[in-house]
Specification:
Order of helices and strands: HEHEHEEEHHHEEHEEEE
Strand content: 15-25%
Number of helices: 7
Number of domains: 2
CATH topology of the largest domain: Arc Repressor Mutant, subunit A
Distance between the termini: 66 Å
Largest sheet: 3 strands, antiparallel
Length: about 200
Amino acid sequence: MQEQLHNYSASSFAILCSCAENQVSHESFEGGLFSNLLFNIASEGIEAKDKPNLSLFELSPLLSERMLGASADMTPRMYLGPTLPQFPLCKNIQYAPQTYTLSSHLVNVVKALWNDGNRKILTPKEIDRLCGKGAYGNHNKLSLLPWDLVENVPNSTKQRKLTQRGISFMKGKISVPRSITQDPKTGEWYPTEGTEFIFSSNID
């Protein structure tokens, strides 16, 4: 059968079998074990920050694992062609895009670098001392677009300063989104849907 599929569709094919050819597939009034497990896995989703949708490539190993645990005399078979497109089969209910909010820790970093208009250049350790432990590990988030408020000092990987955009923000000339979200496909960051745009006068 696989040879016929290769002749007909090259290597873009998918075959889902509930058991091997010498086994019997268990059926019930609620449907077969294989189809029920497939439905359950798709309904539960998987933990993955970069997968808003699930394809057979994600569902296949989970289905095999569940089947082996549910029935000793049913060995599922799933044949996926090597050039089968990664088309979405269902939405991943557990997917939640990575989102950052301009929290008090991050606000404190911007304020420390602004220093009431007498701008400072600070190392991560100085940021730690002035702004607290939460700011130490998170200040790089302020460099992400569309915030772009803080940057590394040229020719230095340890010192941080306000960008020109950060200076404009602290002067009240521009606003920034309170929350930003990452696109799982491109890796780019954009304003979270429905978030408010705030000026420096609005930050806590």
